[in-house]
Write a structure and sequence with these properties.
2 domains; seven-stranded mixed β-sheet; six-stranded mixed β-sheet; 15 helices; binds nicotinamide-adenine-dinucleotide
Amino acid sequence: MTTASGPRKETDGAAPAYPEQHYIGGRWCAPDGAATTLPLVNPADGTRWGGIPTGSAADVDRAVEAAAGALRSWSATSPRERGRLLLRLADGLDARAERMARDITHEMGTPLGESRRLQVPLGIRTFRRTAEILSGMSAREDLGATVVHHTAVGTVGCLTPWNYPLYLVATKVAPALAAGCTVVIKPSELAPGGALHLADVAHRAGLPPGVLNVVLGDGPETGRALAGHPRLDALSFTGSAAVGRRVAAEAGAALTRVTLELGGKSPSVLLPDADLEPAVRATVQKAFQNAGQTCAALTRLLVPRAQLPDAADLASGCARRYLPGPPSDPGTVLGPLASEAQRTRVAAYIRSGTAQGARLITGGPDRVRGLEAGAFVHPTVFTDVPPDAAIATEEIFGPVLSLIPYDTEDEARRIADGLGSGLSAAVWSRDEERAYRLARGLRVGSVSVNGAPTHPDAPFGGFKESGFGRERGRAGIEEFRTTQAVHRTPPRVGDE
Ligand code: NAD
């Protein structure tokens, strides 16, 4: 069965009404056979508001075949034509920005103000900016008579998490389409809305059938079938390190090229001459943005031992301003976590912090009074955290900040760089050159010096267990291109 309908149009704050269907080969279609329904739950109050099917291996197969079938003609379009389509997608998303912001808030709990200011604009900008960057990129290089073509890598599978449901789909789909690839997306089962809105917009914008496909479903069945599909040429995964390992193994068995954007435990290093107040305030903001569910969240604050009491007071004061509240209220700055399972996990980490010798100075593991039905967690700060405690070494993905004292700059560098992950960091010093030197010594994919904002076109990705490959900007498009060299005999002198 197929239908032509995408997400409905209401913007009244009601639950989103996504089609409980896949989008394959330019059509909304029912799952193959009897699919299990996965519930969609509002994390603010625990109510079930919808459900999606678990895509089977046969559904994934149909989607990959549709994408592979569309590859030849899509990759033969001109970059200018693809750029125009990306801009049409940006316009289509823009026209429903408010509805998408409300849907994201409903499905995974980001406060409405943040969904409007961050979640949705980041996704839309990615399509627009990718079109602009593409227009400045060359697709051929001449080496004498030899021509090197920079060409689409092929049919691409995308697996995405729930924390930025539109943006993280956009950072894969926009550059993949720009490069001339065709795509199958398996979005998070907790927050499929971003991918479904995008499919609907693409349908209305006239993207040819098969160029973009969405298969709904969970990780172990649907995601796994996509990761190991033999007809994929590339797989782009964003999610946890644990699942990243499995996905890479599946793709490796099929000899599929892989990009992995995994988690982190990013340090914010205050050197002794740093301006304490702005550094602590900015670190708390980065730690608690999206209720701490951001891969690059600065969750470890490294402080010279003598300044620890002052830093702890400041951090605790800043954290208390993050009052948990209903995410649909535009004034709320700290919404619930995306699921009850995530709340349980974060509360267990908070308990482990106290058990492993850290000192809890704000927050704690208890439910938030008045909001007991939702997946809310108090903004939580620990000080005197032993560098080897679980809360200082493992990604928590909740609003929990750990202050870790150090005695020398060398020790600070060792603690900052001493984990398996290496996604991002911040460094603070009044001496910009000193901070820059420390930044260059860290094995992480991006570092901010003295609170400098991250440039949206700069490559983003990890070192070590934070993954490999880069997203965003020009590097993000290159990730979906490969080369073909055509060697020709040079014309002989005197030939016409
Ligand atoms: P997750 O790893 O559980 O799931 C990510 C995606 O993989 C989902 O679509 C899921 O359904 C799918 N999946 C799960 N098991 C699978 C399997 N066996 N085979 C194939 N697919 C499978 O991650 P999550 O809980 O949705 O998101 C949180 C994690 O994502 C955090 O660790 C966070 O750091 C990471 N993240 C990283 C970045 C980055 O760019 N580095 C950005 C955002 C989030």
